[in-house]
Write a structure and sequence with these properties.
The complex is a heterotrimer of chains A (369), B (329) and C (277).
Chain A (H helix, E strand, L loop, with lengths): L1 H9 L12 E12 L2 E13 L4 E5 L6 H9 L7 E9 L2 E2 L5 H4 L7 E4 L13 H13 L3 H14 L5 H4 L9 H13 L5 E5 L7 H18 L2 E6 L2 H4 L5 E6 L2 E7 H6 L4 H8 L40 H5 L5 E2 L6 E2 L8 H12 L15
Parallel strand pairs in A: 3-8, 3-9, 6-7, 7-8
Antiparallel strand pairs in A: 1-2, 1-4, 4-5, 9-10, 10-12, 11-12
Helix pairs in contact in A: 4-5, 4-7, 5-7, 7-8
Chain B lengths: L29 H9 L16 H8 L1 H18 L36 H37 L1 H16 L2 H12 L3 H28 L2 H8 L4 H37 L11 H9 L7 H34 L1
Chain C lengths: L3 H10 L6 H13 L13 H36 L4 H14 L3 H15 L15 H35 L2 H8 L4 H9 L5 H25 L4 H10 L3 H29 L1 H9 L1
Helix pairs in contact in C: 3-4, 3-6, 3-11, 4-6, 5-6, 5-9, 6-9, 7-8, 9-10, 9-11, 10-11, 11-12
The chains are: A alpha/beta (369), B mainly alpha (329), C mainly alpha (277).
Chain lengths: 369, 329, 277
């Protein structure tokens, strides 16, 4: 109750201005206990994100990127989850907070946009209420003010006739419009961090660009930080400051966006990049050219987790897990023994080609398989 | 499908399927119709492999309570069948002993307000309950099951008509139907068995039909069809054996419902004519002397309660057991 | 012995001298005009008897459903909150037990507990609602409770199952991510979309409920449709039996119609689907 009164007096919550990054994730690990064993969805992820900056998190489905975003927020199932590591947000350690304390951060300081606007809006609640309820709960605004702000929000996310739309149910809107609504919902209380979890995957290609541009504009105008999770390198290419590539629960390469595209070190990143669809391709063809499938998160391979599918793979990749090492550009890190574009990498690739272990991009068969 | 390496016993939660059996007459309806919407284990564990087990494991997996239930029903059946051979008092011997005696060695459960031995009356009363329960559901199973198999296999307009009719029949107040029949034809064991049997056709039809529809689209049935097997043969050899376990486990629950229905009729004095003992009738008679001796009413109530509970539980347990096995296919 | 002339006259009065189809057409015609015939025994019009009995049964049904819902909804939500938790397992067990107690046994049990042992409520009898509200409720409480307990167990389980499914939906995660409190999420977000099956089952349950009402009226001697039917059966007063079965059938159809309308109220999607088609 007390917290609520505070919010009422200040309007938007003013967190202490700390120096340093807005979000700092250190060695975050999230495992799920299941009947088959421990699913290691996120396995020691670290990064930091400054105010007003955008981080793209890229990986195939099953790479743990969605779990990462939920784990950062603390939005995980109550049971059978093992989480460790640190998540420092605006100077507060989120992992140490109870769910009740987190609820004062969720929606207010961190907003979230989900993958599928068809399912992420309540089908039996009017759009207006879904926007205003967090305003009214967190900021204590009255009905009229809530309505006014909701109209302004819908207007700013590019929904025509916002006042009429307030009374609509989600099923009366198109997919793109719904995603605009979920963005308005996430932005309602003016969060300082926006987590966007595959915000365009479920949408038509034509709408995707619009939504991404909308997110970018909102992020700039509001000086928010944003974590944009996606499986599509093309999506994050022009819209992020930094990109982290995830594979099997780990960050395998992280670099400023420009550097990542011009000077990638990790063969997986290279493979992802090669698989960016041409403009005309439908989005679903994206990753079809990377041979094999991501590893089972219960039975992870020893060594480098990508070696079974890697055209550069050598014996060492099977035996030893490569550590995260720094490249020449500041802020560029990667995990690889035989990095792309280096003499070692070229040698490894050539050797594999010579020995016929590579056939038109087919994987190096893991021993014993 | 890989067997999970751990030897840990599968921690399957006691799922009560949504179409919970209900004892009141009408909700023979509840189970199948509600079930269609809600079926499915409430707790789905992430990627848990479910595999068929060896029979001995199956016995254990059904659980202790299941075997207690089966044991109870078996005991009741055994006593009812052997009633004439057992050293029991005459269930209709009015005045053969003092009325309203407390339980004693001579009268295990005491005597009722007319001095009849309650234990003996409960065992003879079980005969009516069991005959009505099993015979009527047998009728329902044969008629409803056959229709369900045919309708589910051939589909088409006939199926639509049957389906619609069964929906209406399911929801209509069963007791009102029973009362109407008894009022028109008069009360007798035969009337009761046949009318409850008729009532059970619709729910059993739906269960069998729904399962048939599922199996009729399975690969092995399609394969048999493609190989040119005759339809009768496919129904008898491919579909029936698969539909039967679910249908029989539901039939157990249906028997419980039929027993309650007979109990209700007997309670209203409209089942088998007195003095033939019935559980419902005994409860009704005991009701008049609740103030002096509540035990007279309690014993037949307990007999009815535990029998119904046991049948419900066993049927329900079997049903989820077969569903699990199904999941392992 | 009845004289032959009197018998013929009586048969004529009752219309029994007409052919069977003729009698049926006559009956339909009369029924549609609100004339349900007269009692064979006392000459009272059937319509009047039914009119007196109907409010009792309706009150009983409404009250029992209110009790059942008021108890079942919070319990179902609680059970769904932690599936297979302690509360869930206990409530499952209790529900299973309740469902194994036939309505007539439950009635007798409640009479024994509250009327015979503790004299809290009267065991039998009825005071009309219009006469004395307090007295009416006193007489109505045990019968309604008897009816309610069976429905309650079913409703609770059904709501629980649906609620568990709803709580796994994406929009619940959205609501959590908005920082809404748990109670708000449960009541404002999850409850309504979890009630579709409840409404369906409530519709299916009507048959059971009417059956239960007949038994309860018999046990508690409430002058409703059920007791009217039963006493008419005992007295072989077929005119009344016919009429009450008709009333029950019509009532049954009407309630089912109401349930269908309720869907539209709960789920805006069906409402708009109908509007656009």
């Amino acid at each position: 109750m007390r917290a609520r009164r505070d919010r009422q007096t200040t309007g938007y919550p003013a967190a202490p201005e700390t120096s340093g990054p807005l979000l700092e994730v250190a060695d975050l690990t999230t495992h799920f206990r299941t009947g088959r064993g421990m699913v290691r969805a996120v396995d020691g992820v670290s990064f930091s994100l400054d105010r007003g900056r955008t981080l793209g998190v890229v990986g195939e489905s099953g790479s743990g990127k969605t779990v990462l975003s939920r784990s950062i927020m603390g939005l995980l199932p109550r049971t059978n989850v093992v989480r460790s590591g640190e998540v420092r947000f605006a100077g507060r350690e989120l992992t140490a907070l109870t769910e009740a304390e987190l609820r004062d951060i969720w929606g207010v300081e961190i907003g979230m946009v989900f993958q599928d606007p068809m399912t992420s809006l309540n089908p039996v609640m009017r759009v207006g209420r879904q926007i205003t309820e967090s305003l009214r709960h967190h900021l204590g605004v009255d009905r009229a003010e809530g309505r006014r702000r909701a109209v302004a929000l819908l207007d700013s996310v590019g929904i025509p006739e916002p006042e009429q739309r307030l009374g609509d149910f989600p099923h009366q809107l198109s997919g793109g419009m719904r995603q605009r609504v979920t963005i308005a919902v996430a932005l309602a209380c003016g969060p300082r961090l926006l987590m966007a979890d595959e915000p365009t995957t479920a949408l038509d290609v034509t709408v995707q660009a619009q939504i991404l541009d909308l997110l970018a504009r909102q992020q700039r105008e509001r000086y928010m930080a944003m974590v944009l999770v996606t499986h599509d390198l093309g999506v994050v290419a022009g819209r992020t400051d930094e990109i982290a590539v995830m594979y099997a629960g780990k960050i395998v390469e992280k670099a400023p966006t420009r550097t990542l595209f011009s000077d990638m070190k990790m063969p997986y990143t290279e493979a992802l990049l090669k698989s960016i669809p041409k403009l005309a391709d439908p989005s679903h063809t994206t990753l079809s050219v990377i041979p094999g499938r991501p590893p089972d998160l219960v039975n992870l391979p020893t060594g480098c987790r990508f070696y079974p599918r890697c055209p550069y793979a050598q014996q060492r990749c099977r035996d030893e897990e490569p550590p995260l090492q720094e490249a020449t550009t500041p802020g560029h890190v990667y995990r690889c023994w035989f990095p792309v574009g280096t003499p070692e990498g070229r040698d490894a690739l050539d050797r594999n080609r010579r020995e016929g272990r590579l056939d038109a991009g087919a994987p190096v068969a893991p021993a014993g398989a | 499908m890989p067997e999970p390496p751990s030897s840990r016993p599968p921690s399957r939660p006691d799922v009560v399927p949504a179409g919970i059996p209900s004892t009141s007459l009408g909700v023979m309806a509840g189970a199948p119709a509600g079930g269609e919407v809600l079926e499915g284990p409430a707790d789905v564990q992430l990627g848990e492999a479910k595999t068929a087990r060896a029979p001995s494991a199956a016995i254990r997996r059904l659980g202790f309570a299941f075997w207690i239930s089966v044991g109870w029903v078996a005991l009741v059946i055994l006593l009812a069948v052997l009633a004439n051979l057992l050293p029991l008092d005459d269930p209709n011997g009015i005045g053969s002993s003092l009325p309203k005696q407390s339980p004693s060695l001579q009268h295990l459960l005491g005597t009722d307000s007319l001095g009849r031995d309650i234990f003996s009356r409960i065992i003879f009363g079980a005969r009516v309950s069991l005959i009505v329960g099993f015979t009527s559901i047998f009728i329902g199973m044969v008629v409803g099951g056959t229709l369900g198999l045919i309708a589910g296999f051939y589909r088409g307009p006939l199926d639509a008509i049957f389906d619609g009719a069964s929906t209406v029949a399911l929801a209509f107040p069963a007791l009102v139907f029973l009362l109407a029949i008894v009022a028109a034809v008069g009360q007798s064991l035969f009337t009761v068995v046949v009318s409850i049997g008729i009532l059970s056709i619709a729910p059993l039809f739906r269960i069998v039909r729904a399962n048939t529809i599922v199996y009729a689209q399975r690969e092995f049935v399609l394969a048999a069809r493609a190989l040119g097997a005759r339809r009768i043969r496919i129904m008898a050899r491919e579909i029936l054996p698969n539909v039967l376990p679910t249908a029989l486990s539901f039939a157990l629950v249906a028997v419980a419902i039929a027993i309650v229905a007979e109990g209700a009729l007997a309670f209203l004095g409209l089942s088998v004519r007195p003095p033939t003992p019935t559980w419902g009738g005994m409860i009704s008679e005991g009701r008049t002397s609740l103030e002096q001796d509540a035990l007279i009413c309690l014993w037949p109530s307990l007999a009815l309660f535990f029998t119904v509970l046991a049948l419900n539980f066993a049927g329900d347990r079997l049903r989820s057991f077969f569903e699990i096995r199904e999941g392992g296919l | 012995m009845i004289p032959a002339k009197g018998l013929a006259q009586c048969r004529h009065q009752l219309g029994l001298d007409q052919s069977l189809p003729g009698q049926y057409v006559q009956y339909l015609d009369n029924s549609l005009h609100g004339n349900l015939g007269t009692s064979y025994l006392n000459g009272q019009t059937v319509g009047k008897a039914v009119k007196q009995a109907l409010p009792v049964t309706v009150e009983l049904l409404v009250l029992s459903q209110l009790i059942a819902l008021v108890v079942a909804v919070p319990l179902g939500i609680l059970a769904a909150l932690r599936p297979d938790g302690v509360f869930d397992q206990v409530s499952t067990g209790v529900a299973f037990g309740l469902l194994a107690i036939p309505a007539f046994m439950l009635g007798v049990l409640l009479v024994y507990l509250f009327a015979v042992s503790f004299h809290v409520f009267p065991a039998t009898g009825w005071t009309p609602l219009t006469q004395d509200l307090g007295d009416n409720l006193k007489h109505a409480i045990l019968p309604s409770l008897t009816l309610a307990l069976g429905s309650l167990a079913v409703y609770m389980r059904v709501l629980r199952t649906d609620m568990i499914a709803t709580l796994r939906e994406d929009f619940i995660t959205t609501a959590r991510a908005k920082g809404m409190p748990t109670s708000h999420i449960l009541l404002r977000h999850a409850l309504r979309p979890s009630t579709f099956a409840l409404v369906t089952v409530a519709g299916i349950n009507i048959g059971t409920l009417i059956t239960g009402a007949f038994l309860v009226e018999f046990i508690f001697q409430l002058p409703g449709i059920g007791l009217l039917t039963l006493s008419s059966i005992y007295a072989r007063d077929y005119g009344i039996v016919q009429a009450t079965v008709l009333v029950v059938a019509v009532g049954f159809v009407v309630i089912n119609l109401l349930v269908d309308l309720l869907y539209a109220a709960i789920d805006p999607r069906t409402r708009h689907a109908r509007a656009t088609v």
